[in-house]
């Protein structure tokens, strides 16, 4: 798979709906409301938005413009069956953006649906949380994860399906029902005591969940395990892709912005950087690459980004998220050869996603 640079944007809307196609007695048949979030990922032509570096800002503007018509509305007045899938379709039909690769709507931070452009396929996801203790028995002497400790783990179940014109894919409640027995086993447990989880790394846990659920949910496409708020693992039955997130606080100006554009002024962002690495499992350690090692090996690059002025970085053509992601890859790849995707958001949900290697982006966010 060749390099792919996407721009991403996210825009919220507050609306009410009834989903009458759900079974009798389902709570979502009643009028209710959500803080929705619409998300788009697009392969934009360079300079789209007027100048090099304007792409992600212009994408956000287009998405926010399309979403405006949904905000503070009774959604049933706009479309007869306002499922997350149909809302994403509605936005896809109205969004005047080239190269859209995926468009999604989440009705809460726990669940949503993403559509692939041009295909009637949906990626439905739902998030769960459990509180558990664990220790990693095979880590080197003195490693913090060798001590008994605990986490508020989060799991996302992802299902990919053909919609074939249907109003919705798998019901979020069906994902919850499939998850319930695992929740009973994992919540308030010490993971090391559960058969098959004697070495409960995120990687082993995601595989353990996958093996339990895939016979009952053939559409299961990925299992995501968040071990902490900043690190976790995705597993699809074959590949382990871990990520580590960091934030940095930096200044920039977009010198190609036209006269009068506020982005020509020196300004700043609290950036979110997510480094993804795909690698085989170490048979003894039960992980791919230690999250701590990812952070340590990235540190020399991090120090060049955090609390600095980015438009002064040597070798950087422009200080927009796409150019920065390319710069970060060149600077980090020597130390982290397993790196195959970089997400860089300059505001929440908005920025760039650069991927290369066999897996491509793999997941919408
Ligand atoms: N590839 C893996 N690496 C690590 C795992 C794992 O399951 N797979 N687990 C751990 C520890 O259990 C640890 O609790 C979490 O790791 P880490 O992100 O390093 O912890 P911090 O929250 O302390 O990180 P900071 O960003 O430095 O605060 C370790 N590695």
UniProtKB/TrEMBL annotation:
Gene3D superfamilies hit by this protein: 6-pyruvoyl tetrahydropterin synthase/QueD (3.30.479.10)
EC number, as in UniProt: 4.1.2.50
EC supergroup of this enzyme: lyase
Required co-factors: Zn(2+)
One function term, GO molecular function aspect: 6-carboxytetrahydropterin synthase activity
InterPro entries to which the protein is assigned, alphabetical: 6-PTP_synth/QueD, 6-PTP_synth/QueD_sf
Pathway: Purine metabolism; 7-cyano-7-deazaguanine biosynthesis
Keyword terms, alphabetized: Lyase, Metal-binding, Zinc
Catalyzed reactions: 7,8-dihydroneopterin 3'-triphosphate + H2O = 6-carboxy-5,6,7,8-tetrahydropterin + triphosphate + acetaldehyde + 2 H(+)
SUPFAM superfamilies, A to Z: Tetrahydrobiopterin biosynthesis enzymes-like (SSF55620)
Pfam families: PTPS
This protein's record includes keyword Phosphoprotein: no
Similarity comment text for this entry: Belongs to the PTPS family. QueD subfamily.
The protein's name: 6-carboxy-5,6,7,8-tetrahydropterin synthase
